[in-house]
Amino acid sequence: MVAAGAALADEVGLANLTMGSLAERVGVPTPSLYKHVSGQEDLNRRIAALALNEAADAVGGAVQGYAGRDALEAAARAFRAFVLQHPGRYAATIGEEPSGPDDPLAAAGQRLLGAFTAILSGYEIAEPDVDHALRTLRSLFHGFATLQVANGFQWSADIDESFEWLIVFADRGLRAL
Question: Is it the case that residue 177 has pLDDT exceeding 90?
Answer without folding.
Answer: no
